[in-house]
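Hi support team,

I'm opening this ticket because the web form for multi-chain structure prediction keeps timing out on my end. I have pasted the exact lines I submitted so you can reproduce it. The total is 560 residues across two entries, so I didn't expect it to be a heavy job. Is there a limit I'm missing, or should I split the entries? Thanks in advance, R.K.
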Amino acid sequence: MAMETVSTARAFGGTQGVYRHASTATGTPMTFSVFVPPHDEGAKLPVLWYLSGLTCTHANVTDKGEYRRACVDHGIVFIAPDTSPRGDGVPDDEAYDFGQGAGFYVDATQAPWDTHFNMRRYVEDELPALIAAEFPVADLTRQAITGHSMGGHGALTIGLRNPDRFKSVSAFAPIVAPCQCPWGEKALGGYLGSDRAAWRAYDAVAMIEDGARLPELLVDQGEDDAFLAEQLKPELLEAACRDAGIDLTLRMRAGYDHSYYFISTFMRDHIAWHAERLKA
Amino acid sequence: MAMETVSTARAFGGTQGVYRHASTATGTPMTFSVFVPPHDEGAKLPVLWYLSGLTCTHANVTDKGEYRRACVDHGIVFIAPDTSPRGDGVPDDEAYDFGQGAGFYVDATQAPWDTHFNMRRYVEDELPALIAAEFPVADLTRQAITGHSMGGHGALTIGLRNPDRFKSVSAFAPIVAPCQCPWGEKALGGYLGSDRAAWRAYDAVAMIEDGARLPELLVDQGEDDAFLAEQLKPELLEAACRDAGIDLTLRMRAGYDHSYYFISTFMRDHIAWHAERLKA
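Hello R.K., no limit was hit. The queue was backed up. Here is the completed structure from your submission:
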């Protein structure tokens, strides 16, 4: 699990780094980025995880997410994993929404995906352990998680699965119910097989229906998002949270699409919201 | 000079657009981006031009520049042109620092470059006229200009050449004296020929030595910039401004490199500085 530094650069007074390590969960090298704001020697800072969407790597949010100033303002470490294993020996699919770049934060059970596509345990277990070992500035007793689209699905499901670990969970335009949309049906069917019962452990709405609980959730969603009606369906999360007594703040944003223009606009709000809860 | 809209997206309450038009200056289609912050119907907003560096298009700063929130805060239109003509019929060079992506904001006089590489008159004359015609929100009586590296050279030289047009001129890690560095000697030699006297019209330090004047300049420069000693040489600008009585604020930034991590960190400061002068 030795880690190598791909690059570091000074940014907003802190350090934006990109790192690579040999993952046991995926059996591949995995790349991720970490922003560490300026801090006193020996300080321990809370951590915000950001999970990315289809086709993305760590680089999209690192380049376009506009999170660094807010992380400096609030003293938060920002970590962006990749969205799947990658490389020549890793199975892939020609479509953008399955295979490499589309790991969906599941542990695959179906060949040929089950060898490498273990993004659930990579993000839930292995990468946090690496962060704890390699970044003593990161205080893993104070974690929050967010993400975009497929990564919003990842944030919601990982958050719901680990209610004691995360002080707060939010998402930008998440896939809230992969069991009920084409992206999710394709991915969960491919990685987990045809038994839909197995899919429910990776579906935020189904997890809530099945008893998972968090005190609150924050979701921003663009009203002009081209994927809103067919893939994202925030109304399903709204109904599940209402029935379960989860305090969901769902903000529909007029005129916004699915892009990083939308994410970067509201990133500062999400970081401030997490900061309140991380420091409570 | 008809303009087509390539894309628009809501961002920070405003509109980030990308546009294309048939340029007469370059004889090619040219792409640029414009961010228009939210504004009252009929409002006229000041304009900040941003000229990009070697290898860049409009997209680098549009993706990574983190300028939109500050432009909203100050009510400024932000325009990012491309760095050269492009396309199959346009001459190029295998190197990253000459030809396509490296127009150096000159009007070339040497074949084969002189047909298309007319970025001086494109940026100085043609694009402002297009903006005036197509973006009535842009108040071209209030313009400011900035840029990065080769684009910092562009901002300084265009600003010095047009002291009555620009209320303020700044730069990030600019090439201040292309006559005295390898990038500049190659580019100016290639586009303008071997007579170095002709180069001085495109060299900020030489222009100041030859009498060009602005009341003040703002420059940020990373101390860990890999191009600092050989290519950028801010000390030459410092000496020229001292001799000419130009009030140069040169901020050397410890630990910063030449990347957009550096630019985005200080973008807000530059926009605030321009805003003060645009609204004075």
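A quick check on our side: DSSP finds nine helices and nine strands in chain B. Let us know if the file doesn't open in your viewer.
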